[in-house]
């Protein structure tokens, strides 16, 4: 009878839950997104951000704007200066995530349009000048302010990185950048080192000869940060200011003011080494904005611009990301916040939207684009006239696409000087290969999507993690991060420049904890999208076979350690990955939210060190056997299943350390584990900072979004009744068993 009664309650509860769902079907809150081809903005209302301290307000409307014009002079929606006589015209030109990209160029995707070969510092400077000239033609008394939103340094090419990014500071100074904030890469070598190069002070330790001889001159850039505070004092460190007020004096003796607030991403602790952030707290972005916006308003400053190193993207008529969520929270905490402009960064994507009253923009990265915001200040209110503000993002066109715009000669001279200074370092030998043949990369994959350069990279990452004293079992990298063949000279030598070309991004390498099931998921995720994105792996091998699924035609069957030991789904392992994968890059969501074990260092430096270490150990670099991914037919899988799995895979270990390698590890860890970045730099071992994303060809993760459910109040009540009856079932069983 007990079972009968229990089943009856279970059926009643299930029936009520079913009735609740039937009577209140899920309704999607989302609405169709308009094509970006239209000139009309797209309106989307995002979900409410709820916090304990937030006021109970509805979310503000998010309107995605459009940028179909390639130049300010081609734009038709600027406010008419004639309508704002007696007002003060203001232009803000912005960049973000420059990453020392003195000569970097590439594809820029803006509002559904693709521009080829955009960028370089000298052309960026020319376009900023042209935009200012266009503004001044319509507004002769106008004021232009040039700003940046973090990560101006770090993950830099050799002509910046080898000069401690001082060449970049010279270039930015020459192009008139006046105000900036901190990104995560400003912490790559510690905040004091970044502030040293901003202020043009001499190095505090020995670097390569080129850096030591480089002119150390102040940049003139005012760095502001409001939410980075010293853990001991609670104050913004090193005398930095949380905000800056720019006074503008008009020809008729009026003074208007614009306030700038600097904001760091609260993700900083997972984006840089512990020693570089351990002394600071990163306060909530929205709460900090609200705090200082009120302080500015109390000083009569109602025109407020936020420079924030937080992510956002506009795509297919929709704008979303951390920056949108932050602004929603700002509007909940203080509906009268008066934040007019928000320059975002960090995600390296295009964005242009209006969130409530705030214009939100992001200009991709590495100088491929720039923000252009124009509005009119009312001297009576010290605020922008709301309908006067217009914001756009424009590409920095190539000389081929725009031969009439010439590179800025002053910035170009800075770049050429940097190139000449680092030439000897780039050509410096760091190690040797076993033969004088180039070791090919992703353009010469095996049938199983393996390549020599990629597997040497992950072998090196696994080796360097162990050398740093971290318990690493495997290493994996996205093959899009392995950018080139390993070029070997006729004398078998490998240069610093050749190695840096293979791993140019300086991504942070981290060791994370993953279950075997998560590792299997990551490996399986290679086989969707027709293997457009795949991994290079070290320390493990696996077999895979066909399956009847058009979305994922292959599946992983068995996984093994390099010595043949099976990898079990329910056990935990430590995996070396870069920060791009850690964020789910290239669609590898299996790596997201994994537990951090430790930080190895930057991938560029790790690769250079590995080549040097192997050469010193008498084991020069050579192409591994490309046998870490083994395809089996279904018949072969069935045949293997009949045997004992423990006897399978007499696998040769391609990544186990040799006695010579173990000796090197012992030497580097004697007397305690040393951070990879604490080791002394030489001319061939230079810190190349990391990047959250990273290259034009690395696709940002595009997750399929399920629709949000609609009004669930009635469903919730009925479902609660059903769940309550189910709970009664548990009580009934307990009583009758007891």
TrEMBL record:
Pfam families: 5_nucleotid_C, Gram_pos_anchor, Metallophos. Transmembrane segments: none annotated. Residues 699-735 form the Gram-positive cocci surface proteins LPxTG domain. Residues 639-650 have a biased composition (Polar residues). Residues 91-350 form the Calcineurin-like phosphoesterase domain. Residues 639-658 are annotated as: Disordered. InterPro entries: 5'-Nucleotdase_C, 5'-Nucleotdase_C_sf, 5_nucleotidase/apyrase, Calcineurin-like_PHP, LPXTG_anchor, Metallo-depent_PP-like. The keyword Nucleotide-binding applies. SUPFAM superfamilies: 5'-nucleotidase (syn. UDP-sugar hydrolase), C-terminal domain, Metallo-dependent phosphatases. Residues 431-593 form the 5'-Nucleotidase C-terminal domain. Belongs to the 5'-nucleotidase family. This is 5'-nucleotidase C-terminal domain-containing protein.
